[in-house]
Amino acid sequence: MIDYNALLKQVEEFSNAYIIQNISSCHCFHNSIHTHSVVQAAEEISSFYKLNDEDHFIVISAAYFHDLGYVKSDNAIGHEKEA
What is the rounded distance in angstroms from the CA atom of residue 62 to the CA atom of residue 59? Predict the structure, then answer.
């Protein structure tokens, strides 16, 4: 059986470390605070729809990863490719 909670902890740690190591000073919005807010919203959605463990993992992981490409770029253009 897959331990989705352990995997989510790894996703969270990776995301936070990636943001800290790669964030540019020109990013005043796409940072760990923004990511945390998106994850909180995803948690509410998951709870409302009573998602099973696997679907919950997918939604929350997507929330953590949603802007990682933007963090490393100097602007929004092309950040989807980086992610």
Answer: 5
Which tens digit of pLDDT belongs to each residue from 50-65? 999 999 999 999 999 9
| CA 80/CA 53 separation, integer angstroms | 27
> pTM to 2 decimals?
0.81
- At a CB cut-off of 8 Å and minimum separation 6, what does 56 contact? 4, 46
Can you give the three-state secondary structure of 36-63, one letter per residue?
A: HHHHHHHHHHHHHCCCCHHHHHHHHHHH
Report domain extents, the chain. 29-75
pLDDT tens digits along 17-35: 998 888 876 666 667 888 9
